[in-house]
Specification:
about 350 residues, alpha/beta, two-stranded parallel sheet, globular
């Protein structure tokens, strides 16, 4: 089976591509390696996957020295012609779409980047899936879509029509775009609403990454809303396990779907939405304490007001994923943070 994984120079895509390659699937990974954050980290992920980054040329495949069934192509998903050529060349069976312009706060100052990657890029993915009639499209959504909804734990069966950032709005748009293609073309699509993912090789724009760097250097950390926040932190290995399980089971229509009382998470089309998280929210100050324990050093904390686009709490209702895929995260917060800090010190030589 031939699988396209987008965003393989990114955090989650890096892990997913390797896991699928180890399982024996033929993998094509793509990423445009943009400068949203340190490209040395992105190159490091590719090198750790056996991709010689010195050999990268736009639109030319470079195959892994570690996984002969995994090749990487530097490619921008928002480029319509390149994406049409990609799908026509490889005729993918399954697509795992993880590439996106990430970041809640960055979307406030750079909104056009999100329209280009998250909307135009996603449309190119959908069109590619339609052109070759893929068996399943699994794509990354976000817990950010819940926005002003304060009914926790967050359920995919509740409405999510009030996002508080353009990033969140773009992810909600992806869900609606996917539904239209599932309805029109019977393409099975599954959206995964990721809750805060952390771990080795993570994104440096994430709070835990910045906190670790600051604590190690003895610099103060900015903690918003005076630390009165909590997140459903999920270790990356647990997220990857969930993605792999979902990829193997294409979405199907809900035979009990009622158009007079529409369930947002299912449809009369082959369309599904799931939360994928840990279902055990951790208070932000507790998370900082886990970092302090792993680093062996106390944080200097600078308490600040709530930031625009942030939400107070994320808490995933995981009942659907648990029931349908037997998904149960295994990594507790201290163990996951310990692994992250060990990697961080090694990668940055601190």
């Amino acid at each position: 089976m031939k699988i396209l994984v987008t965003g393989t120079a990114g955090f989650i895509g890096f892990y997913v591509a390797q896991r699928l390659a180890r399982l024996g699937f033929d993998i094509v990974g793509v990423d445009n390696i943009n400068t949203y954050y340190d490209t040395e980290l992105k190159h490091g992920r590719l090198e750790a996957s056996g991709i010689a980054t010195a050999s990268l040329r736009d639109n030319e495949p470079v195959c892994s020295t570690l996984y002969p069934n995994y090749c990487f192509i530097k490619l921008d998903i928002s480029d319509r012609a390149q994406m049409e050529s990609l799908f026509n060349t490889y005729k993918f069976d399954v697509v795992c779409h993880l590439a996106a312009q990430a970041g809640v706060r960055y979307s406030i100052t750079n909104p056009h980047d999100y329209a280009l990657s998250n909307l135009s890029g996603f449309l190119n993915i959908l069109e590619g899936c339609r052109s070759v009639q893929v068996k399943h499209l699994v794509y990354a959504s976000s817990s950010s879509v819940y926005g002003l909804n304060s009914n926790t734990p967050f359920s995919v069966h509740d409405g999510a029509a009030h996002p508080v950032s353009l990033y969140a709005a773009s992810k909600k748009s992806n869900e609606m775009m996917a539904h239209s293609y599932s309805h029109l073309y019977q393409i099975p699509t599954t959206g995964l609403r990721f809750f805060t993912v952390y771990g080795p090789w993570g994104r440096p724009d994430m709070a835990y990454f910045k906190f670790a760097d600051a604590i190690i250097k003895g610099n103060p950390i900015d903690v918003y809303n005076n630390g009165e926040m909590q997140r459903d932190f999920t270790y990356v290995d647990d997220i990857v396990e969930g993605i792999i399980r979902v990829l193997d089971k294409p979405a199907t229509a809900n035979p009990k779907w009622n158009s007079q009382q529409p369930d947002p998470a299912t449809s009369s089309a082959p369309y599904r939405l799931y939360n994928i998280g840990n279902s055990s929210p951790v208070k932000l100050m507790k998370f900082i304490e886990a970092l302090e324990n792993a680093i062996g050093k106390k944080a200097v904390i600078n308490l600040l007001p709530m930031q625009a686009g942030d939400v107070l709490s994320t808490d995933a209702d995981m009942s659907d994923l648990e029931k349908e895929f037997n998904y149960h995260p295994q990594t507790d917060i201290q163990a996951g943070i310990n692994r992250f800090v060990t990697w961080f010190k090694d990668f940055y030589k601190v």
